[in-house]
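Changelog excerpt

This revision adds worked examples to the README so contributors can see how folded entries look when concatenated. The first example is reproduced verbatim below.
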Amino acid sequence: MQFLIQPYFVFAVICCAFSVDRIAVAQQNTPPNIVFILADDLGYGELGCYGQEKIKTPNIDQLASQGARFTQHYTGAPVCAPARCTLLTGQNLAHAEIRGNRDSGNGRIFPGQFPITNEVVTLAEVLKSAGYTNGAFGKWGLGPSNTTGSPMKQGFDRYYGYNCQRNAHSYYPPFLDSDEKEVRINNFAIPGHLRLPSGEVRADDYRAENYAPDLILDEAVKFIEQNKNKPFFLYLPFVEPHVAMQPPQEWINQYPTEWDEENGVYRGQNGYLPHPRPRAGYAAMISDLDEHVGTILENLKKFDLEKNTIVIFTSDNGPTHGSRDPKFHVGGAASTFFNSTGGLKGFKGSCYEGGIRVPCVVRWPNHVKPGSEVLTPSYFPDWFPTLANIADAPLETTQTLDGIDLTGAMKSGANPKREQPMTWEFNGYGGIVAIRDGNWKALRRNLRKGEQPLEWELYNLETDPSESKDVASDHPEIVAKLEAGFLKSRITEPDFPIPFLDKLAE
């Protein structure tokens, strides 16, 4: 049988091919979209791709298989607000404006946290100057709407979520913040802190009409669709798995009832809300987070944005620490049961590895090799120069940036030179300083307790990643060098004072 090819068909095929070629060229010349997903209190060992054997995280594991897994990535701080400050301002905790969790003091029930100032330039502002549309969806923690710290005053075009991290202690809060307005979402909201010393603990007693993470996710998906034809920066500081534990029941049901037979129900004795199956509940929160990550990835694929989007997934600090009742961690979390730190020492609020080393996965098609590992030590201040470079955005800031560009490390495994050690100066939990220079890590605690804090500790992370042997007495010259460099570089921050260090600087 002979087929006749009509001229108009040939013309259509040629036009279609030409159109596809133009789209491909246009995508090559378009700056990549940036999606930065920040989990809350997710430990280094709580993902399958980092060795977790009990909790289901298929979407994040797949993301890791499609990109790179960082093995020595650190948050900028061991708790919420200062970690976000180091990420968005590119400064370490010896220079950053926010060095601990502190409320703004504006007299409201949910006052919001101490605000960053107009003077500091955020990553969002730099990307905006390069033509990006910026959206933030989740927990903010860097200043209420009526202050300089509002996301809408710091480079974001759209914001939806919890402005105040205290409001984020409940997954069924009374309201969420939409841009700079409070939008009521639950008429019968659930407070994040209750105890039930006796009687039956029922998960449904701590649920209301609207589950905030789903609402936040919906708004983030809308942002992707609305901005699919232009470069965007999508910042997703999701709230899970931070307690209180209020995950969807369908996820709880997927985990064994035998897990909770040993310790039984959690009654709120370590803060936050009771839960009838705390181990299953904690795993469910992480699986629910993983499902939300999957939804974001599905929508990038749906709108044909995968190839021209870099996706970064990480956590703001280590997993929740222990408390009064040793059977449970804060809020009933099961960080020990799940080996949430992956064998590292310490938890949230600590500058030991378990408190600050966090999972980090990056997918960037045609740039980052699938299934690769990045061995370079890195931390939150590095993302400012890295993403500005990827976006071809000018690094015009009033503050000195403390990070390095990780582009080469992600693409080829190159080990970029770091001129200054990675540094943490944490105002909370008694006051802590930590310094990592190469494989050496020095740490000093209790800086705000009395006239004389604890002595410096020193660890060689190459041979002792679990920080089991303090070798400060064997290498006093290394401790002295790191301390002197830190004190010379440090900037005093009166809003987050550490008097012992302030006196040394005089």
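The second example, added in the same revision:
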Amino acid sequence: MPSNLTILVATASVGCAIAVAGSVAVSGQTLEAQELTFESVESLGEALFFDVNLSKNRTQSCATCHDPEHGFVDVRTTRAGQAFSLGDDGHSLGDRNAPTAAYAMFSPRFHKNKAGEYVGGQFLDGSAADLAEQAGGPPLNPIEMGMPDKASVVARLREDDDYVAALEAYFGADVFDNPDDAYLAMTKSIAAFEMTPEFAPFDSKYDRYLRGEYKMTDQEELGKLLFFSEQFTNCNLCHQLHRSPIAAQETFSDYKFYNIGVPTNVAGRAANGVPLETVDTGLMGNPKVGDLAQKGKFRTSTLRNIAVTGPYMHNGVFTDLRTVVLFYNHYNSSAKARQINPETGKNWGAPEFSETLAVKELTHGPALDDRRVDAIVAFMETLTDERYEHLLND
């Protein structure tokens, strides 16, 4: 997979084909032999990913909200807990939970499939077509990295001679003639880094199990059986890409959009100041969509590293993974206890949009007892990359 991203700098005329999240940018440039600090577009993108100088107050980078040591999510605690990320200004809070950047490379470009369903893209509403477009969003968002415009970001890039040399080498000597071109080159570099194995090692207990290197516990095995069985659960209706339960490199998302009835994060809204009556329309709010039938739908998240990347849902309303399973299960259960959110001790909050609720998917399958709920959680824990397994103990 990453081999098609290798960039060679030579003394002759070279044609560099840079594959980034499903799109290809081609440049043919005659380059003088030179030694670059960044030996590849990926290494350049890595530096950019960690560079706080690309934010207004030089305090925030991509890695701030997508921490590689914690499953590429934001683990900073704010007045909203960990539901929403704090901006570069030290005060502003977003209104969506930062999704993991791990395995994001596998989401296809945003499109409508033959069945008329919206699929893929980046951001929870698919509003960025691919990784490069997504990388260009946060630097210009006033409540995230806060830069006023692309030209200002490019000016920060030009402060670093190594950046200038690498961008000119990989994207053309004239890349800085137009701020839009330089900005795009920056985003493609970051996307190239996000397509490296660091973001998708496929080395969890589940992957090792598939390779015969790990034996699941009885509880994990039960959870796997339940997860992949449409007779007993609805998990794999949305969280399975390959139809075989033993497929390698399963990402545990169909990349489609659903309204699963997530309630408003009341505490989070009290912290970030967004009025409770302001409802996140999800996919409908995507500039490429605007269809009332898509109101309240969000893209299915990968379950890779799900056990260590809470809080959960698009608004971070649930803290514990077991709560998420119980939330899904309450649609199938008539038991009074299953209608109670264990984190609040109260009834589950009402869906923000009931008219587009995915009733068919949500009500599929029987109610689950505690043993089966715990088994599903145990199985999802096996989807944790090896480097993060120690976080399960936390």
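Reviewer comment on example two: Residues 1-33 have pLDDT under 50 and may be disordered. The chain has two domains: 2-66+131-198, 205-393.
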